[in-house]
Amino acid sequence: MKFLKPFIAAIAFILAPLAHAHGEFFLHDAYARVSAPGAPNSAAFMVLDNQSKVLKRVVSASTPAAKRVELHEHAMVDGMMEMRQIAQILVPKGEQVILKPGGLHVMLFDLVKPLEVGEHISLTLTTADGHTLTKQIPVKTVMAGMKHHSGSE
């Protein structure tokens, strides 16, 4: 029985990355922005990777770290850059969509408490077909205009 513990631990380590996937639809390189002093809101960024044979539609997001969560985009409206809520994020079959500062993102409104660097929050995305992807994501400092990065978390 004692020899089973390392084997079970190894299997759990191998399967852990799949915990945030549904079939061939993955969420990776995700992080939430550290709260600005006194700010009640933040945002989350990530890569949505659809290796399935069908279009995926992310229709909502949630986290216990915020009272309200919305899908957002930045768009040019009458010559001004504006952030606005959108109903869904489309992820074409076989493609990736990057959620990054200044582009598509997940807004976290009315934070339960300020988000601090080094913490992790749970983030759940729900697709139009009712499936969910949940992942613990790190809180990081994000500078204005910073490009989304890839890499391990």
SSE arrangement:
Layout: H1 4-15, E1 21-22, E2 25-33, E3 42-50, E4 56-62, E5 66-77, E6 80-85, E7 89-91, E8 95-99, E9 105-111, E10 120-127, E11 132-140
Parallel strand pairs: 2-11
Antiparallel strand pairs: 1-2, 2-3, 3-8, 3-9, 4-7, 4-10, 5-6, 5-9, 10-11
Name some characteristics of this structure:
153 residues; mainly beta; 11-stranded mixed beta sheet; disordered C terminus
Describe this structure in words.
The chain has 153 residues and is mostly beta strands. 8% of the residues lie in helices and 50% in strands. Strands 1, 2, 3, 4, 5, 6, 7, 8, 9, 10 and 11 form an eleven-stranded mixed beta sheet that branches. A hairpin with a 2-residue loop joins β5 (66-77) and β6 (80-85).
Mean pLDDT: 84
Strand content: over 45%
How many DSSP-defined strands? 11
Distance between the termini: 34 Å
Summarize the structure.
Helices cover 8% and strands 50% of the residues. The protein contains one helix and eleven strands. Mean pLDDT is 84; it is low at 10-21 and 145-153.
